[in-house]
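Hello,

Our lab assistant flagged a job as stuck in the queue for most of the afternoon. It eventually completed. Since we weren't sure the result was trustworthy after the delay, we are filing this so someone can double-check. Below is the sequence as submitted and the structure that was eventually returned. Let us know if re-running is recommended.
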Amino acid sequence: MKYTGYIEGYYGKLLSWDERIEIIGHLSQNNLNTYFYCPKEDPQHRSEWKKPYSQNWLDLFSNFISVSDKNGINVIFGISPGLDFNDSLEDLFLKINAITSLGINNVAILFDDLFEDQSGQVHADILNKCLNKFSGVSFYCVPSEYCSQLSKPNFNESAYLENLAASLSGDIPIFWTGDKVVSSNYLNEDISLWKEKLKHPLIIWDNFYANDYCTPKVVIDDFYSIDNTDLSSLEGILINPMGLIEADKIAISTFSNSLNNHPKSFDEILKESDLPENFVAIARLFKFNASIDLDEKELKILEGYLWNWHGNLKSELYPYMHLLRRMIEDGVSEDILLKRFNIS
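-- returned structure --
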């Protein structure tokens, strides 16, 4: 696949430049090749997208690009202009020009999470005009209806997707999260249907490890979503995880391991991380489909982590572990919590 890697595309967390560079190193170590910069908490990416970046920010981003290049990592820069576009094509051109002048030649235009009916024709026109304006730049589309679940009235009858696919330049790949916003598998027959409808190269935006919809849950799980997927039918697949640097590095490792047909067991990957040695005993608490059915011995392990374990990973896991302990000991009176955390 052409694109494999990491999306900084979540709500509620904005990485530092040092953390981004750490992710770049981990992507390189795991033979992945792409970093997609589109954080929802960067105001100039989304809520204030027309506002230019400061020179200091541009200098820091330029250094980030240099480090990425040295590590063999392609950077896709994302702009999300949909909240108040209002025919602001020149503002969009200015933003793209500022970024491409730093050496970026991959730009994604995002129209996700606008929460109002949108026009696929309008979004295609915006991207096509960008493509015509900037020769040598590759563009990518994140549509408003970015999965079957969000397609209106449904995937087969979506006028938005029909118009987008018919009008969007064939050179522009489409990011797609699958059957749902958070998908746990990508069936080959579904991929065939998506490609037939969308008529463009398809890059999976995977939210398996994402937790911005279920914070403070932390997902530490084997990446089994593509075990039976024909990856040659995809242009790429990138994971959009949590913005928790140590947990995200485990997610990157398991993702890469899955892409390479699992040369390592999940337990081996856990042992290579900074997790305690006996973490495997309570690992089911952190799975995508989690379980809180612990016996007394396992509960004591969890309590030991709360009071006696130290390290960077603990600070990321602590809020969820503390909540889990209360849920296990006191019970859960609201089903909404179980559904929110995918707990049985």
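-- support follow-up --
The delay was a queue issue, not a problem with the job. The result is valid. Residues 177 and 205 are 5 Å apart (CA to CA). The first strand starts at residue 3 and ends at 8.
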